[in-house]
## 1
Amino acid sequence: MRAVRMTAPGVLELTEVPTPQPGPGEVLLRVGAVGACHSDLHILDAAAGTFPTPMTLGHEIAGTVETPGPGVDGWSPGDRAAVYGIIGCGRCRACLRGEENRCRVVPLGGIGLSRDGGLAEYVVVPASRLLHVGDLDPTQAAPLTDAGLTPYHAVELARPRLRPGTTCVVIGIGGLGHMALQILVATTAVRIVAVDTSVAALDLAGRLGAHHVVQAGPDAVDKIRELVGPPPDGADVVLDFVGAQPTLDTARQVVATGGQLLLVGLAGGTLPVRPVADEPPTVPLETSVVVPFWGTRAELQEVIALGRAGRLHADVQTFPLAEAPEAYEALRRGDIHGRAVIVP
Ligand code: NAD
Ligand code: ZN
Ligand code: ZN
């Protein structure tokens, strides 16, 4: 079969590999669609040894069951499924609570992270990773598994502060951010301020229900403070889907006293935290900082329910498998709006 693999750090290639066979408890899935996540670029850019090579990339997967392996119950050929990408140890304190995204044994274990992913015609996954998606098209189901799940989990973590009438600043309206806006609209009554460098992303944000849009730049903090109030007031919650130095600096300067910063993006910035009350504080008093990772299987089921109810819809640009490397280059240039989805 054809597969797009990271053959060495930084190298992404279309290759021919044997079609894998499902072992006990596993399923061979025919890939219907796989989302191109910005994290794949971070995986490609990571130092040698951080991730296995060669490895098929792609951790945002939906498709149809081709062959259930020995001992698999409840899945038949032709069943449509989305893949929960995390594979925790299953035995630690976190995994036993269903929080595999907090596994204390294999913190980055997953499909397309520590074993072959879905940028291929077929992928083998543990049957326990599959969730039914009904008649959702795979190009819609795939983005739910990460671009949908990760912001959903972040919003769940912030939910006690997302009271009606509070304000949430969302930075980075790309694959994850444009889903975050819809999740906020569907599940809260907060006022939303969307921030991005790209005018096209801000247009999309407006269409998806953001109440205010602010173009990122040197005056972004002032413009956001006009909307959310100056310190010690500010945004109750800030979701940063970029994580670069400028966005982290913006985030900490617009969050309210007692607010919450959720740092989802992995662009390499640093958030200084110094517990002082005098000026200039690095973060306001009583601020809480969270570094969310992906989400739980139970949350994915809820995200799929939102998708099936028509409340969460990925804005997708599709590419054939052979053009996956071009799709990632477009993502790196900032030329993808919503989510790039590869259809093998
Ligand atoms: P994306 O490329 O689709 O979207 C990024 C958006 O941020 C784009 O709209 C871009 O214009 C905007 N942007 C870039 N620089 C900016 C800046 N300085 N100020 C404002 N906006 C800016 O990426 P994505 O797939 O949505 O992923 C977003 C980030 O989240 C990545 O770093 C990715 O690795 C990370 N991620 C984290 C998790 C997790 O579990 N923590 C899960 C998935 C993705
Ligand atoms: Zn991802
Ligand atoms: Zn575990």
Note: Residues 149-290 form a domain with the Rossmann fold fold (CATH 3.40.50.720).
## 2
Amino acid sequence: LVTAIDHVGIAVPDLDEAIAFQRDTFGLEVAHSEENEEQGVREAMLRAPGDTTGATQIQLIAPLRDDSTIAKFLDKNGPGLQQLAYRVTDVEAAMAALRAKGLRLLYEKPRRGTADSRINFVHPKDAGGVLVELVEPAANAH
Ligand code: V0V
């Protein structure tokens, strides 16, 4: 089902501060950043310098508004690991396979994720307490 670990997401209160921390402390660089209005987030994908292999990235996720899922997460837990994203080649097929196993998907249909990927999430209560994201990258990605 899964072809790679696409990214690991960290909830942060301030995106620019978190980018600077990862850069100055670990030497990671920003590969991509955007605002996703529907998800209510500002986010940045980080990688090791110059890495173009499509290796697992770190996604820093900050809330755009008070009612964002990330704002709620930060209120409840503070900053920290928020999600684990698995890459798949066909998100609808992955959703169907997981539904057939009785897992709850958060969305009826895939929604738009980073860089025009198509995404859905498995409810954390059905995945060992981990919010698992399914990511089908856009056709022109990687
Ligand atoms: C909540 N829970 C979590 C969790 N969030 N467990 C593990 N990891 C998380 N991130 C647990 C929580 O502790 C509660 O357990 C229970 O689930 C219900 O949580 P809640 O605080 O009442 O929150 P809800 O139910 O209002 O919302 C939780 C869900 C929500 C997962 C449904 O966060 C959601 O819709 N997430 C998907 C969208 C998202 O995360 N977007 C931001 C990233 P107890 O206390 O009852 O035991 S956007 C993104 O990743 C993009 C654009 C991308 O990658 O491309």
Note: The pocket of V0V is lined by residues 9, 36, 39, 41, 59, 61, 69-70, 72-73, 76, 82-83, 85, 106, 113-114, 117, 119, 121, 124-125, 129-131, 133 (CB under 6 Å).
## 3
Amino acid sequence: KYEKLWLLFGITTLLVFTITIGVSAFYMGNQPPSCLVTVDPANVDTTAPFDQPGLKQVGDNQYELIVVASAFNYDVGPEKVIQVPVGSTINFIGTTKDVIHGFEVAGSNANMMLEPGYINTVEATFNKPGKYTIVCNEYCGLGHHLMFATLEVV
Ligand code: CUA
């Protein structure tokens, strides 16, 4: 007798979940923060904005950091250390020339994958001064542990 009730409960729950996800994805337009604009991995160096990696100020306390990852390096401009003032919001815009790399600003909520062919973005605000290490958190080969850059909030 109770089996039927549980079965009904299970099916109802499943339906509610499915409908919730459906409404969220198609009606409200929620998408995973990947699969945005595409870029040809072979021509990253000549494709804007990746032909000029590095930090750009786009407003009051607003920055963009163009990141080009490749085994085993982050190209974030001429310097490996990026500096922004306390309270800055950075929109990280990245892609990769070869394999999948990670992009994590340790100590912040900026964490994304860089996938060949795709441009991924993540935004974070830095209200605490300090040195934040940018690390690759996707195993990408023998030099994986050598992939890092530094963000200095001063
Ligand atoms: Cu790049 Cu691990």
Note: The mean pLDDT is 90.
## 4
Amino acid sequence: DAVQGAVVFHKVSFAYEEGRNTLKEISFKAKPGETIAIIGPTGAGKTSLIQLLSRFYDTSEGTITLDGRDIRTIRRESLRSHMAFVLQDSFLFEGTIRDNIRYGKLDATDSQVEEAAKLANAHSFIMRLSGGYDRVLIADGSGISQGQRQLIAIARAILKDPAILVLDEATSSIDTVSEIKIQEGLKRLMEGRTSFVIAHRLNTIREADRILVLKEGCLVEQGPHEELLGKQGLYSDLYHG
Ligand code: GTP
Ligand code: MG
């Protein structure tokens, strides 16, 4: 059963602690392949929202559906097999680079691993490392740069080939060359997948099919860039600084 990647939030509320809603009646739709940018001040609920998608937590009220199916009726493992997460601090384990990428699809061949790394723009830096794909990483990833860690995480996600992608853009500064490589890799990764991006880069936000503007747990505005600018509300204020 192939997953198309249509996601609908219907009046979703969520509370970490009873009586204090962190997310309040959030409703929006993502069609298969769309890019949804999520923005808003710190503590607004951006991370909480994407955690509901993978059933890391379940909603307190309202429903989330994937291709029309309530995600609470889908086993967590099964749900997560259709998703890849590229987070600010993507998890690498102690093992070779090859195995770290292969974690996206455990039965992948060496050539599939390398193909994914090429699409992610990771291949050239890996080939320049002593040991190449057999280079052993230590768990905290030291020995390679933060940008290189992200390229490995992107390769892993490309190999997994999920219908849904969740991306938390880095805020920390990465050198320009790595940044360009990462953006190119991410572009390939996002193609044809429903993507939820906690966005910090103006380009990502402007190019998204829809922007969700969160404030104190409420979805205060949603729409594409031009439309939101026209509303002259919170988005317009944030955009014009
Ligand atoms: P930034 O990542 O800082 O930009 O914020 P965010 O928009 O991702 O906010 P997040 O979803 O992490 O938090 C929303 C609210 O939930 C904040 O008031 C947090 O303090 C609170 N919160 C986040 N995680 C937890 C948790 O594990 N337990 C409890 N009790 N509250 C939490
Ligand atoms: Mg967050």
Note: The chain has a mean pLDDT of 93.
